[in-house]
Amino acid sequence: MSAPDPGDRKKPLYLKVIACEVAFREVCHIAAQTQNVLDLDFLTQGHHDTPASGRLEIQEKIDGTPAGKYDALVLGYGLCSNILNGLTAKDTPLVVPRAHDCITFFLGSKERYQERFEGNPGTYYYTSGWLECIRRRNLEGSSKNMFLPVHSQAGIRSAYEEWVAKFGEEEAKYLLEVMGDWTSTYTHGTLIDFDFTKPLALRERVKQICSDRGWQYTEVEGRLDLFRHLLNGDWAEDEFLVVKPGERIVPSFDDRIIKAERTQKAELSHEKAQ
User: Fold this and answer.
1) DSSP 4
2) Using an 8 Å Cβ cutoff, are 92 and 65 in contact?
3) Residues 43 and 91 in one domain
4) Where does 41-101 have alpha helices with state H?
5) Which of 92, 103, 215, 224 could form a disulfide with 210 if both were Cys (CB 3.0 to 4.6 A apart)?
């Protein structure tokens, strides 16, 4: 099955959405407005802390999808500690945002993410989903109530192993040291807020967290462009990767963030057909 043409709007697309629960409110907000028909499947936050098990659960969701039922499966995940690395499209195309992590979703684009990352070092970002996951995991008032994709110990170990394989042990140790410095030098807590989340009084909660940690509090306007394009089927190549059946996702280590490559099984089938 080939990827549907986003420009064809004769009938709504039928999409299955597999997303992290941190994006629950944002995805539901867009889902209520899109003309497409969506089946929503939210997975528990924290899979990027243990990328191998998270990747396995996402792949099981992909493999368990009946062939021909949906026009595409869309993933509400960024590269997130390489949780996407190796995910394979089975019978239905996968559509994946080009994003380092979910903060990209809430800021609206990988370009805005990069701009904020470079211009605001030492910043820890909060959204309604992050704060609600703290409550769901019973971490309120705990020193453990900070979590970001690559900053958990499991995520660090996974990243370190991949760095060793790619760059060698000496360079991997240097990158690990840099990561350790980064996690210990937060100076700001920034709330990414939307009009529809303002009634939740998130500002007061994040201000208190910042006060408790001696951080400066800041706010930034959230943008839903990436979520909207994802769920509306507007899959421009510079924003999204469309993975065809028989292909898998791998990091691209460039501005594209991710790319698709044929699986060994698909490559062998192709060679036999020639």
Assistant:
1) P
2) yes
3) yes
4) 51-63
5) 215
